[in-house]
Write a structure and sequence with these properties.
The chain starts with 17 loop residues before the first helix and ends in a 12-residue tail after the last helix. It has one domain. By secondary structure, it is an all-alpha fold. The chain is extended. The longest helix is centred in the last third of the chain and has 35 residues. Strands 1-2 form a two-stranded antiparallel ribbon. It contains five helices and two strands. A hairpin with a 4-residue loop joins strand 1 and strand 2. This is Integrase catalytic domain-containing protein. One of its GO terms (molecular function) is RNA binding. InterPro entries: Integrase_cat-core (IPR001584), RNaseH-like_sf (IPR012337), RNaseH_sf (IPR036397).
Length: 145
């Protein structure tokens, strides 16, 4: 009825569909770079750079980052809107920012900024890998196939 296909996959050799495989590959690359930078994130217990703890935040940043393929964010494509962060509301209503609030804002945004940087690096790395092995066909008028 919905024309969906259930595809099972293994952990180390995923064979589902290209989009899911590419998303997983990109998320792995982002988390790998994020942990390599030695970023520490404060969860409810203590500071950590454990990728399992960081995954939800990195996923949120990934889903709110514009992708070169669609020109839109995954949240906008899937849901039709982008989520707003609490600081987005504060920025609209404040005329001046107290220095302590600025420090808090910078501390709060540091993981997001690092994740965005990691996403950009992962995109560039994956693009270079793709470009090495895939050449655009050179078709000329009159070429027979």
């Amino acid at each position: 009825m919905l024309c969906t296909k259930l595809a099972f996959s293994t952990a180390y050799h995923p064979k589902t569909d290209g989009l899911a495989e590419k998303t997983i590959q990109t998320m792995e690359e982002i988390l790998r770079r994020f942990c390599a930078y030695g970023m520490e994130y404060k969860d409810h217990e203590a500071y950590t750079n454990d990728w399992v703890t960081l995954q939800p935040e990195v996923q949120l940043v990934y889903n709110t980052t514009q992708h070169s393929t669609t020109g839109k964010t995954p949240s906008l494509v899937k849901k039709g809107w982008n989520p707003l962060f609490p600081l987005d509301h504060l920025k609209k209503n404040l005329l001046t920012i107290h220095p302590t609030a600025k420090d808090f804002h910078d501390m709060w945004n540091k993981p997001f900024d690092t994740a965005k940087k990691c996403i950009a690096e992962a995109k560039e790395y994956n693009k270079q890998k793709w470009d090495k092995t895939h050449m655009a066909p050179d078709f000329k008028e009159g070429t027979k196939f």
